[in-house]
Task: structure prediction
Amino acid sequence: MELIYIAISATFVNNILLAQYLGNCPFLGVSKKIETAVGMAAAVLFVTALASICTWSVSTYVLNPYGLEFLQTLTFILVIASLVQLVEIIIKKKSRGLYNALGVYLPLITTNCAVMGVALLIPKNEMGFTEMLVFSCCSAIGYGLALILFAGIRERLLISPVPKSMQGTSIALVTAGIMAMAFMGFQGMAS
Result:
């Protein structure tokens, strides 16, 4: 039952993007078309899950036993950046189609603070391996869900009569705020 609570909470209530406002730059930059939003969402899911496993392992088996928790942020940055570069090299050599499909999204994730935020929240909440895996995957799914929904809304806004002063980023931010309030409606499910 606790895993279901973690899943609902990470996906909807404490959405990494809408409730904690992490990963805002790709959210606004990649959400103009649904196709690009889906690509970014898939890349975020893959990298977040992989990075969480690696950072959890480093934290649990290296930093905590030796009292080096103060190096957590620096270590996680290095692990995530190295991991993304390694994954990019492997995908480029093994699966050219997947590499072309991910395109620019994989390097973008290196600087995505949503991935780092998830990695830092896991040791803060003292999660075990299973909880970490559910939390990281559901956080990435929640990020992707918000990104794809937002892309759909932005495509619709292009054909809607939006006042000139609200066009572009202004209406995007207002829409993101309304989406965040809508996602807060799920709070009753997680209580």
Observations:
- Residues 4 and 134 are 9 Å apart (CA to CA).
